[in-house]
Write a structure and sequence with these properties.
Number of helices: 6
Mean pLDDT: 84
Helix content: 40-55%
Radius of gyration: 29 Å
Low-confidence stretches: 287-308
Keywords: Coiled coil
CATH topology of the largest domain: Alpha-Beta Plaits
Strand content: 15-25%
Number of domains: 3
CATH architecture of the largest domain: 2-Layer Sandwich
Largest sheet: 6 strands, antiparallel
Length: 308
């Protein structure tokens, strides 16, 4: 976590330096254009009635060169320079922008068809964001997306680029969430959307059977209802099990909260249940499925949170 934070700070610092350099180049280009215009005005204003043929040719040649240089400089000025600094920052026309990572939960794990549809949805989302940016006279946000893998194969990750530094990631999530609803809303595949939180930690209550069938949202509400003091993360919990459902996984705000919950356990349907760190690769069952997956895998109790 600290390493990623340091990397992001380094990217921000490099981007700010690059922005200064880009602005300096742009200022020089503007000076060059102004110099060309001044030269053109001076050449045009000369009294050519008293010039000899050789002088007229020289003035004509200089005027042509000045006009060509002006066109070249203006072309460079009209070209919006873009540079990426790591995965977290972009420099566009001398201004620093950041990347905000938004997560979308899906009702079912993404299969080959779902991942293909995800690629097609990126274009629709970018079109809507572009229209929004043009309407508000702002630099449009641009997204890329990829499907999650392993235990997170029912999530997609949307990297939102060209976001101004002062914009709150929660605001970005809200605006992008509206666009995602417009694109995915009718499919019924969208569960929820949240800003990726690198501090959150996934936990497991392996022996917490449920007497009532619940979806992931209902499961989250039930957990919070019996454990009001627990700071849950935005990711909804999932039913967990091998041959049959025996418990659930859930995310808490950070590792300090994870340690506290592991130490105290969690209340579930009136009983206190044991909790461990979630082991990546452990079997789980989506709330919508009932059939067994077979081939159960055991779980361990590591001392550090798993990378997400």
């Amino acid at each position: 976590m600290e390493r990623k934070k340091r990397e992001e700070e380094e990217h921000k610092e490099k981007a700010e330096k690059l922005a200064v350099q880009t602005r300096a180049v742009r200022e020089e280009q503007i000076k060059a254009r102004d110099a060309c215009e001044e030269s053109i005005r001076e050449l045009v204003a000369r009294d050519k009635s008293k010039m000899k043929a050789k002088e007229l040719i020289e003035v004509g040649q200089k005027l042509k060169e000045a006009e060509e240089m002006k066109r070249k400089v203006e072309k460079e000025l009209n070209t919006q320079l873009e540079s990426s600094v790591g995965k977290t920052r972009q420099v566009v026309a001398g201004e620093v922008f950041k990347t905000v990572r938004v997560v979308m939960g899906h009702m079912q794990p993404l299969d080959a068809k779902g991942r293909g549809e995800l690629e097609g949805a990126v274009g629709k989302v970018n079109n809507l964001l572009r229209m929004k940016g043009l309407a508000e006279d702002k630099t449009p946000w641009v997204v890329t997306a990829e499907g999650g893998k392993g235990s997170w194969d029912d999530e997609s990750y949307w990297e939102v680029k060209k976001v101004k530094e002062e914009v709150d990631p929660v605001e970005v999530c809200g605006e992008v969430g509206k666009v995602l609803v417009a694109v995915f809303g009718r499919t019924g595949d969208m569960l929820n959307v949240w800003v990726e939180d690198k501090k959150s930690v996934k936990l497991l209550a392996p022996a917490a059977p449920s007497k009532v069938a619940r979806g992931r949202k209902g499961l989250a509400e039930a957990i919070q209802g019996e454990n009001k003091e627990i700071r849950l993360a935005k990711r909804f919990p999932k039913l967990w099990g091998a041959a049959r459902v025996t418990g659930f996984s859930f995310d808490v705000a950070d590792n300090e909260e994870a340690k506290r919950v592991i130490r105290n356990g969690i209340m579930w349907e009136g009983h206190r249940r044991k909790v461990s760190y979630f082991e990546q690769g452990a079997p789980y069952r989506p709330a919508q499925k009932v059939a067994g997956t077979g081939g159960g895998v055991g779980f361990r109790y590591p001392q550090k949170p798993r990378e997400q």
